[in-house]
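Me: I hope this is not a bother. Any chance you could explain this protein sequence and its structure tokens? It all follows right here:
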Amino acid sequence: MSEDATPAIACRNLWQVFGPNAGAELASALAANGGDAAAAAAELRDKGLIPAVQDVGFDVRPGELFVIMGLSGSGKSTLVRGLSRLLDVTAGDVRIQGEDIAAGSKARLIELRRKKLGMVFQHFGLFPHMSVLDNVAYPLRVQGIPRARRHAKAREVIELVGLGGRESAFPRTLSGGQRQRVGIARSLVGDCEVWFLDEPFSALDPLIRRQLQDEFLQIRAKLNTTIVFITHDIAEALKLADRIAIMRDGEVIQIGTPAQIVLNPVDSYVREFARDVAKGRHARVASVMKPASGITGDGPALREGMTLDAALATCVAAQAPVPVTDGAGKIVGQVDPADLVSALHVDDR
């Protein structure tokens, strides 16, 4: 994202506090503690309030797949409900494509959800008395779009999620994975620009879950959609994300690319998430590359987008720094075998 581009989602100093007079209590705690968020949160807990989201801020870039992950109770689902204004936040600012959604009227919020925001949750929420076609077309029906047009659009999206031929089926006749595909199709039928998904695959069997993750990436490649995806599964996060935000006790602890999360965890909490991750399958050569220093293109070379696993044999066999090239074949850096081995080292601390 260029410096002057408007973020798809901009979140600043976001708080979600549950309890009596939450807004006033938060303002008082922040004032009493000189704006120190951690101290204010501790004071709120002492008073019996629950600071479920604490002073969170980040930008999501247009077209980015931004994953928010953490353990149960970390605040990730509460955060996404604040971003989408399913909950009115206690304090802070959320802007979607530059628009302050907290300032919008109820009518404006309904319009945003119909025309701009898509949402998918763990529980499918399908209408049992409606066919797949009518379930998917329902958001267009609410918009008053004629039956023929909405069904034509619904058929396109049903095909996109791999359910072509099941348009007349009812939810009770579908598997869990198929029902989740219907939910995904329904959220996409309005050509959403920002898509919120809260643990959409967590209720599925592992095999179906992996299949849907693969299909999700294929769908994403065909869309120009910004995605916020909630999960508690580090493998899922690493597979899907452009960037990951890791939460603990209402706070965002680290934001980074999958390689940054795996190779450079900021503390023991993040390190524990990545402990059993096969680093070489997720980190890329660019994450350990150094500036090129007098190296030539003679002999073997690495590509900056290669995984560390793919680069290992070439780099170690060379026993010397290996050039790294970009997509056009231009040398953009180098990798030392020792740096590659160090990056792949399993930290048992």
